[in-house]
Every structure is written in C-alpha cells, then in structure tokens.
C-alpha cells in the first residue's frame, strides 16, 4: 500500500485546504487564468489527477451554470479527499477575497461614495467588462448565427430590463440551439475516470443533490415571499443568481444588477465601485457577493449578510457538482445538451453586452474626460497587460486626483 493511500481523511482534507488557500491568495486574472494555476498545482506539481481527468472536470464546469474555476476546485477537492475535501478546496480558494471584499464594503460605509476614487473604479469596470465581452464573443459568438443570437439577446435585455429577462433569454437560447445547431458542429471530448468519485457513496446519492438543487429554486422564493426579511431575500437572490450564471464570473454582473440596484439595495455607484474593486483581488469573482452583503448593513450584521450571500451564491455549485460529476462521462455525450449550450453561450455574450451599455456606460461616462481615462485604462489593460491589482490602484488614485 502506498504512503499516500495510508494518509487519513483529515490529513488529505487539510492538504487540500492549504493548497487551495495558496491559490486563493495568488490566483489573479480571472477564471481562465485560474484554470492554468490549478493545472500547475494539482496536475503538474502534486499529481493528484491526470491531465485527461482534469480536462474532463473542466469540460463539466464549463457546461454547468456557476463559477467554473471554483467548481473545478470543488471537483478536485472531492476527487482527492471526499466531499469534505470539496468543501476544504472551496473554502481555501474563496476565503481571502471574500474577507477582503466584506471588509472593504464595511469600511466604505464610513466614506463618501461620491469620492473621485469611486468614480475611477467605475471607469475601470467599463474596461473590465468590455474585455470580458470581447474575449467571450470571439469564442462563443462566432459566425453570423451565433453573433445574431447574441445581438438579439442584447437588444431584448435593453428593451426589457427586468429581473427575469436574463433567465428567460438563457432558456429560449438553449431551446433555439437544440433545434437549430447541427450535431457535427459541436465537439465531443473523451472521458477519463476520476479517482474516488465512483466509490464515495457517503452523504446523499447524486440524484438527490439534483433534486435538492431544483427544490431550493422553488422553496427559496416561496420562503422569501412569506418571510419578507433581508435574510430570506439574500438567500433567494444569491442562490438564484448562482443557479443561472452561464459563461463565467463576469456574467454575475447583469443578474445581480437587476436584483440589487433595481431592488434598491445599493446605488449604482456603490455596485459598480464594488465590482471594480473585486478585480483587484485573487480568487473567484463570485466573492463580489461578499461585498454586496457587507454593504447592506454595518458591523456584525453586515458581516453576517456577507457570509450568507457567499454561502447562498456558491451552494448551487456544490449541489450541481455532487449531482452531475458522477454521471458526466455519459451526460456530455448527449448531442441535444451540447447543441443547447451553443445557444446559451451566445445569449450570455449578448446579456453581458447589454449590461455593459446600461448601466455601466450610461452611468460612468459623464463627459469626454471620462472617455479619455477609459481609453488610457484600456491601453494599460489590453496593451501592456498590467495586473488587475495595479489597474485598481491606478484607477482609484488617479480617479481621486482627476475627478
């Protein structure tokens, strides 16, 4: 028996936590960069799984709604140390940025949201989301068919900016993709067996996790309707958001903006400043939820709201990973699912484009000086490829001086 197989479950869980904590402190650059960091750490350095198994996990997490990089980490942690390891991997990767954004939100309540540094962060959000739209569009909205679907989705979002519009568009686009995309247009990857997943029968069987995922989508809105409290509202909004975000962390922006800003939880300035600040920290962009929760109240109450928001937005990821990953080698071969995802991804590009136009552009660009500042930031970000934390510092500093 190998030395590794003799290690206790607790020792493996602790190992997963410390490895993921290191990644949570150093993984800048967004989901695509995170996947590169993960491969270096988990596949190359620690050899916890093979390249093929890692690619299989990445394929699943690109398919599911939710934060792809966090879901990959959860899957690797599960593969290494069981479901407790999945939680340890998520906690280590998420904790640093969640704590930072929570403390930033609590601190910002004691500062003026009219400060120039806040406006500088809003202008940075213009650049960050523009890059996200461009990068996703080059991959997910290529060709006349997908590009048109993205543009129509953007137009519908602008004409009908309601909370349910993004979810409705995603559903319709998935149906269109299923009906119109040819089977030979979608790729099918080979599968690899993942260690431990088939033998890890503790807790609930996979189908019960999927049932719980769907049941909570019904139960939380009903609870919120009858309870009508801030706690029930936070759980409902953030669980629903985590359940319907396709295409990466940036897509959380339109769903949360519809709920948080139009629901009068935060002003547009507070929301966009927090989104800009979220670019400065490593780890998943979904920890933006910690900032929003922390901004809803002061002191320990705000901290509690922040933790609740983070837990609610990531809960769907756990339920989906535990429910789908054991079946993934078979599920991803179904042509209708792969075809539907083509439509979903194109619609996601359009949804994000619409939010970039309104409220980001409409509320951030007030005059020519703002536009000039955005162009300079775009040169630094896309041309010189400065790290996100440097862009945040420059945006906040020069924003305070100039505006």
UniProtKB/TrEMBL annotation:
Record-linked InterPro entries: Chr_Tranpt_l_chain, Chromate_transpt
Transmembrane domains' residue ranges: 87-108, 120-137, 149-179, 207-225, 305-328, 340-361, 373-398
Keywords: Cell membrane, Membrane, Transmembrane, Transmembrane helix
Domain of life: Bacteria
Localization (cell): Cell membrane
Bilayer topology: Multi-pass membrane protein
A UniProt-annotated Pfam family: Chromate_transp
NCBIfam families according to UniProt: 2A51
Family to which the UniProt record says this protein belongs: Belongs to the chromate ion transporter (CHR) (TC 2.A.51) family.
Protein name: Chromate transporter
């Amino acid at each position: 028996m190998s030395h590794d197989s003799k290690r206790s479950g607790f020792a493996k869980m602790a190992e997963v936590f410390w490895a993921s904590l290191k990644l949570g402190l150093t993984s800048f650059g967004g989901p695509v960069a995170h996947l590169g960091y993960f491969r270096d750490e988990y596949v190359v350095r620690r050899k916890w799984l093979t390249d093929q198994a890692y690619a299989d996990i990445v394929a699943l997490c690109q398919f599911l709604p939710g934060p792809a990089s966090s879901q990959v980490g959860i899957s690797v942690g599960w593969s290494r140390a069981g479901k407790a390891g999945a939680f340890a991997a998520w906690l280590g990767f998420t904790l640093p940025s969640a704590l930072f954004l929570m403390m930033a939100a609590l601190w910002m309540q004691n500062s003026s949201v009219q400060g120039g540094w806040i406006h500088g962060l809003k202008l940075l959000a213009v650049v960050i989301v523009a890059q996200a739209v461009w990068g996703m569009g080059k991959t997910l909205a290529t060709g006349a068919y997908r590009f048109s679907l993205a543009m129509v989705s953007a137009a519908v979002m602008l004409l009908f900016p309601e909370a349910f519009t993004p979810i409705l568009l995603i559903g319709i686009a998935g149906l269109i993709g299923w009906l119109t995309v040819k089977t030979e247009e979608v790729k099918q990857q080979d599968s690899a067996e993942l260690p431990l997943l088939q033998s890890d029968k503790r807790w609930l069987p996979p189908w019960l996790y999927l049932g719980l995922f769907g049941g909570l989508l019904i139960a939380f809105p009903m609870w919120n309707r009858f309870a009508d409290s801030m706690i029930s509202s936070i759980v409902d909004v953030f669980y629903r958001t985590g359940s319907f975000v396709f295409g990466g962390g940036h897509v959380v922006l339109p769903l949360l903006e519809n709920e948080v800003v139009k629901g009068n939880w935060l002003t547009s300035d507070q929301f966009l400043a927090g989104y800009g600040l979220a670019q400065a920290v490593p780890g998943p962009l979904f920890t933006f939820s910690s900032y929003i929760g922390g901004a809803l109240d002061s002191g320990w109450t705000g901290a509690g709201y922040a933790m609740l928001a983070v837990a609610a937005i990531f809960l769907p990821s756990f339920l989906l990973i535990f429910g789908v990953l054991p079946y993934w080698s078979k599920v991803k071969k179904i042509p209708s699912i792969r075809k539907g995802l083509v439509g979903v991804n194109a619609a996601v590009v359009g949804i994000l484009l619409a939010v970039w136009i309104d409220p980001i552009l409409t509320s951030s660009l007030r005059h020519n000086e703002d536009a000039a500042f955005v162009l300079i930031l775009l040169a630094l970000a896309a041309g010189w490829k400065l790290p996100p934390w440097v862009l945040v510092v420059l945006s906040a500093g020069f924003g305070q001086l100039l505006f």
